[in-house]
Amino acid sequence: MKRKTFLQNSLLTGASLLTAGAASAAVSNTADPADGPFHLNYGIHDGMFRNSAGNDFIDQIKFAYDKGFRAIEDNGMMRRPPEEQQKIGDALAKLGMSMGVFVLDKGGNGANTLAAGKPEYLEIFLKGCRQAVEVSKRCNGKLTTVVPGDFERHLPIGIQTGNVIEALRKGTEILEPHGIVMVLEALSDTPDLMLRHSDQTYAICKAVNSPSCKILFDMYHMQRNEGNVIHNIDLCWSEIAYFQIGNVPGRNEPTTGEMDYKGIFKHIYNKGYKGILGMEHGLSLPGKEGETALIKAYRESDSFA
Question: What's the gap between Cα 56 and its chain centre?
Answer without folding.
Answer: 21
